[in-house]
């Protein structure tokens, strides 16, 4: 049996090599079909892994409460005007919310409050528009920040309301291109802050959900929360096109940490109920639970893989149709050969086996080549990224956002897809090869011998 199989494969290869170009072109449909299945699943896995990593960075045991600016026409907006200045839009989380959540919910083990604004930061003649983040010492561990130089904020800085700052790597590079920032004084909103540390460069986080924007940590300036409240205050006035607008926000974000994962969802429900009573129906905050987002991301990953795999499988079906077309033409060309074989005693099963073997060899070889190409997906994707970053998008608007999103993607080969894609290619060959093989086997031997 083994030797018969080897002989059938050798005969199939000999027949296919008689028409190298035709066999090669037919095989291309299977090659690119298998490659597209592996490549699309790899890209889907990479995108899903990136999204899940962003969610995990927020912490599976964390609950994040963020301030949300109400719509301009919302009746729940709270505006105040003194008659001598711009009206003030007051919204968002309150320090009372922070105290309420940290003191009344027993499952919460730690809390971190954040207030942030955009501000120009200056050192001598150098300036940069940075994100000023007022927070406490726990912010460093929560966002996995590492120090390149100096130290981060301490509890003593918070107690003393010290004018100290920790700056991101890009802020340091722009303001202090030729010297160490530690110990130097920067100017921000007419206040002087002494730089005590510089954070290492780290990848920006993508936007998560509808209420959280992406964060560029390298352009951050960190100061103690109480320092911000006493020096800068809650009210921020912005000048735009000759007019002034003012907003009053006490806290932009409160991050709550729960001891056990199983308590996260239950605690989040308690947080929502507590804030609902405090804010009296105003939709100026949102509660984000990374654990729920992680579960959603895993479900989306499964759906994504099914959709991408199905789309790619269509190209395999097209390749199978090409195989059927070529095999039908081959049967017509080899009608006399079939008649001679039947006259010499070959059975119908022998004819079916002969043509099915040729089809399987054709689709199997294409499948192996497709798997080889699929394994090169990460390298091919890196080449596309290089083209996007250095050629296609050079000088266009929105370059940084697109190149950052595209540049952070890393395809991950789903190794379970390799045998599946190869098996499907062989199966496609068998399915689409049965009809031509049966057509060849059912030929009348005498009519076949008369064929010219």
TrEMBL record:
Keywords on record: Cell membrane, Membrane, Transmembrane, Transmembrane helix
Protein's cellular compartments: Cell membrane
Ranges where the ABC3 transporter permease C-terminal domain occurs: 310-445
Gene Ontology cellular component list: plasma membrane
Segments forming domain MacB-like periplasmic core: 23-271
TM spans (from-to): 21-43, 303-328, 368-388, 413-435
GO MF term set: transmembrane transporter activity
Superkingdom in the source lineage: Bacteria
Topological type in the membrane: Multi-pass membrane protein
One Pfam family recorded for the sequence: MacB_PCD
Family per similarity comment: Belongs to the ABC-4 integral membrane protein family.
PANTHER family per the UniProt record, alphabetical: ABC TRANSPORTER PERMEASE YTRF, MEMBRANE COMPONENT OF TRANSPORTER-RELATED
Protein name in UniProt: ABC3 transporter permease protein domain-containing protein
Organism ancestry: Bacteria, Pseudomonadati, Planctomycetota, Planctomycetia, Planctomycetales
């Amino acid at each position: 049996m083994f030797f018969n199989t080897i002989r059938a494969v050798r005969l199939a290869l000999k027949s296919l090599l008689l028409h190298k170009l035709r066999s090669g072109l037919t095989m291309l449909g299977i090659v690119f079909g298998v490659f597209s299945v592996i490549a699309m699943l790899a890209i889907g896995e990479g995108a899903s892994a990136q999204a899940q990593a962003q969610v995990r960075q927020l912490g599976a045991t964390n609950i994040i409460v963020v301030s949300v600016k109400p719509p301009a026409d919302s009746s729940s907006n709270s505006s105040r005007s003194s008659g001598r200045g711009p009206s003030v839009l007051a919204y968002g989380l309150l320090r009372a919310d922070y105290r309420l959540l940290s003191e009344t919910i027993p499952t919460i083990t730690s809390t971190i409050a954040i207030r942030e604004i955009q501000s120009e930061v200056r050192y001598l003649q150098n300036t940069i528009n940075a994100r000023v983040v007022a927070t406490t010492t726990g912010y460093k561990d929560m966002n996995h920040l590492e120090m390149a130089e100096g130290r981060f904020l301490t509890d003593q800085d918070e107690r003393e309301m010290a004018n100290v700052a920790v700056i991101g790597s890009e802020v340091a590079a722009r303001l202090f291109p030729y010297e160490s920032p530690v110990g130097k004084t920067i100017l921000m909103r007419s206040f002087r802050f002494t730089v005590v540390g510089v954070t290492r460069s780290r990848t920006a986080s993508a936007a998560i959900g509808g209420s959280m924007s992406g964060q560029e940590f390298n352009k951050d300036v960190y100061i103690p929360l109480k320092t911000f409240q006493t020096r800068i205050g809650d009210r921020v006035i912005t000048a735009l096109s000759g007019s002034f607008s003012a907003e009053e926000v006490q806290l932009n974000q409160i991050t709550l940490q729960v001891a056990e994962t199983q308590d996260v969802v239950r605690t989040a429900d308690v947080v929502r109920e507590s804030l609902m009573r405090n804010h009296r129906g105003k939709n100026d905050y949102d509660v984000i639970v990374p654990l729920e987002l992680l579960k959603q991301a895993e479900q989306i990953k499964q759906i994504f893989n099914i959709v991408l795999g199905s789309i790619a499988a269509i190209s395999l079906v097209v390749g199978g149709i090409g195989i059927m077309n070529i095999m039908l033409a081959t049967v017509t060309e080899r009608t006399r050969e079939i008649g001679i074989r039947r006259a010499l005693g070959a059975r119908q099963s022998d004819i079916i086996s002969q043509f099915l073997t040729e089809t399987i060899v054709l689709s199997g070889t294409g499948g192996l080549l497709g798997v080889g190409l699929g394994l090169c997906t990460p390298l091919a994707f890196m080449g596309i990224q290089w083209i996007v970053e250095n050629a296609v998008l050079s000088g266009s608007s929105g370059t940084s956002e697109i190149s950052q999103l595209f540049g952070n993607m890393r395809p991950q080969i789903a190794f379970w897809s390799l045998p599946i894609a190869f098996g499907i290619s062989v199966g496609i060959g068998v399915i689409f090869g049965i009809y031509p093989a049966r057509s060849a086997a059912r030929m009348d031997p005498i009519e076949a011998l008369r064929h010219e």
